[in-house]
Amino acid sequence: MEIWYTKGKLLNVMAEYCDKVGERVDITDQVTVEEVAGGRSGRVMWKNNSCCPAKVWVFCQVYNENIGANVGWASFAKGTIGFTDTMNKKAIQKFLDINNEAYRKKLGHKFGTKITRLFSDETSMSDSVDLNDHTVTYSNIMEEEFEKEHGYTIRDKFIALTRHSNCDEDIKVRYDYYNTCARLYREAYIEMVSDWCHKNGIEFTGHLRANGVLLHMALQQGRCYESNSRMDIPGMDTVGSYWHLDEDGYPGDGKVLASVAKFAGKDRTMCETFSGSGWEMRLEDAKRVTNKLMMVGVTYIVYQSAAYSFSEGRKWGPIGYPPSFGFNNPAFYHYNALTDYCAVRSSVMTKTKPLGNALVMLPNVEAWMRTHEWLHRWFPNGMLDACWFGCSMALQKKSIEHDIFFESLGKDTVVEGKTIKVKGYSYDTMIVPMINYSEQTVLDKLEQFAKNGGRLVFLDSFPFCAADTLKKYDFPAACGLSEEGRHFFDKKDGYKVHTEGNVMLVRFTEKKTFESDEFRNDIGSFVRAGSPEYVIECDDIPKGVYIARRDGEGLRSAFVFNDTNETKKVILRINSSDDICVLEGVAVSDHTAENGKLTLEIPPHEMPMVMLKAEGVTIEAPKAEKKAKPAGASHTAAFDKEWHFTTVENNMLPLQMRYLTAAEPCKTLSPELQALAETADSPHSCYAFPGGVTFGSGYAAAARFEVKDIPEYLELFNEVSGDGELWLNGHLLSGFKKVFVWGAKDSVTDITPYVKKGTNTLVMINRVPSWGGPHGMPWCVVRGGFRLDSTDAITVGDSVVKPDIYTAQGWRYFGGNCCYSGSFNLTEQDKGRVVISIDTTDIVEVVINGVSAGELVWRPFELDITELCKAGKNTVELKFTTNYLATMGFQKISRDSSGKLVYNTDLPYYKIGLCGEPVVTVFEK
């Protein structure tokens, strides 16, 4: 028999005989090995001399040749190897010498002043690309360190890491192995980088890889708490946050981060976000992202800055959409509204900690026991991750406070009667999700808590073994359960709940059950029944509204988040005599609870913060101007019929360039190629190369556009550089001027002399970049003072529009800065308050009679314009800043690992700008 191993150095070969269960034999000295490729792959040959069939396991060490971060996630670097051994102190010291010291020599004089932090991104205990290839975490020093720590060798035990087995020996080996990995990772990367930062007067922050995915996290972070808590500011990320906003579990891993910070005594946590969210995301969407993150305890919101050029290579990672809110997104220049909104909340959050009376165990050790689910690709259907995560999300959805319990904190846990104390914080309920194995320190205290009559929730199983010592437990007996309770988990006949006194048992058969209202209501009723009355309570929380409470010395607070598209009325019960203030927007106002109740009218996606503060406690936020909301009888003022639309930048018509054939730039255009460009019916997409074209080779591509009326001026915006050529109707274009709109390769040239009525043909002769990846062709856009008709043909027309979306009125692809102009009339009798309401989701500045009334970046799009109005005719200018959804919507990037770019042939009219006529309401005095 022969087996090829395709990469790495041979370590060990084992046989597992099929008719003798559990019998494993090291056959390394029985095999013949033929090495190839310099010993980095080879062939193993073995003769089975027994009559028993056997499974043969070949273990080899994967080589990572380059020193550098893992770049396997980049679209142009698939299969690239190169990963610093983060468990090896020598490797980390080399990394610090090469990388960090270079920064110190160049910029060290700014450390602690201009440069305050080191941000570590996506670092892990093992190469995630290798994990995807069914490999196991490993290091050159692993075997030596393992034997030193545990007193036995691991090489002839490797098989325990690759298969599921409940035998004691395999359990102990798996625990010992991953525990050693976690220790080495912490001592090497985490502690050495942290020490380097502190030595140089800067803070260590960032985030580790695999936030929120338990099995992945266990293999890449080792021990979540120990790894993250050693950062000065523990962090996470939510790349593609816009796409996940309405998913049931978003952003559940933020609760893990908040609990790390709480138990580690950290005042701050951070989240890197927004990138990868596409052109659709608006500031209001970004506000929703930050609200959800802060609800679970994230203090800092870090904009993931990504310089992005539209030219040639499109970053797909991880879901096929470009970063949002880069410098080339118009909304970025209004980003300060979001930073102000976050900053004032962040300043309050640093003085408080998440409040919680229940603990949800994070089953890190159980994940180590189930690594076979990852290695054998059972993970996507794994119930373990769904169980603990679904439980935490169920409590969040019910606005029930809780924290995550980490097994590393077992030594810092004390059981006092029916209370569990962790790092000085007290809890009366422990939720144990789908755990069979943990550590003796944890299970001993959990057993003591059960015997004391503590409140316990077991989801789908009872723990029964300490993986570190193999001590066995009988939790049904410790809880004093009846015969029905003892055998409750034996059956698997659908969702069932069983309650006995202070113990609740829940069993599942499907992953989706964790997202059901039934489960949320059941666990919510049980946990809430044991919780003390909150100082800030809501008897009837409206649907779509969530409350998160925080506590600090002299300051208690509650976020009240309206995650709906409607204004919600929330009545809070205040069980305190402390002063009440409410943070709305970016300003704080004092409030009084009438009969112990505080009523809030919360606009869509808004998150006021209700604070109870003791005497002497100050809030770092501006005081809100007290201005009563308009009330009483009212009528609307009619707008004049004629509205006008103008743009700051030129109108745009992006061209759908498609490959034609192989060609080399040579300052000539053959008649055959011109004829092909004029007649070819899209033979190739913008991604699929035609025959003879590959990375680094030349190609010809073409696009056609229609002109019904020739405007005074037309220009071609493009990103072609180097020896690339552009030919319009057979004329070689020249005279390009460099601009900087979207990227470093931007240029424009006047094409008016070469444009004709009817069909115009643009031919590009260019070269594919030499590096492999999902390339889109350089972008070409016709720009000028024109309108487009319903067929996207260029026409000349006036600026008159309806007060509705401009994309359906001749500016289908426009994005950027534009203005609607109109007017309305007031009479001498209109002496009351005047309010304008605008139907939009974009950013708009309202100008009345030439004077700015203010800028609106999210709902409610409503302004009091009383002081700027006059009797008679009043002019209105609505100055919009829109994103580039309309401009880039025709480029459809696949949301998968290929990152393919195709053209959207069924493009809708995006709802951008005004979505209906504004309403001017006059309130009578």
Description:
With 925 residues, the protein is of the alpha+beta class. Helices cover 21% and strands 29% of the residues. Helix 1 runs parallel beside helix 4 (168-199), helix 9 (283-295) packs parallel to helix 10 (336-349) and helix 13 crosses helix 17 (517-529). The relative contact order is 0.08. Mean pLDDT is 87; it is low at 65-81 and 313-320.
Helix content: 10-25%
Radius of gyration: 32 Å
N- to C-terminal separation?
95 Å
Report the sheet-strand fraction.
25-35%
Quaternary state of the chains: single chain
Sheet with the most strands: spatial strand order? 12-25-26-31-28-29
Structural class: alpha+beta
The tally of beta strands, per DSSP, is: 55
Low-confidence stretches: 65-81, 313-320
Count of helix runs: 19
User: What general form does the structure show?
Assistant: globular
Whole-number average pLDDT?
87
Largest sheet: 6 strands, antiparallel
Brief descriptors of the model:
six-stranded mixed sheet, alpha+beta, 925 residues, 21% helix
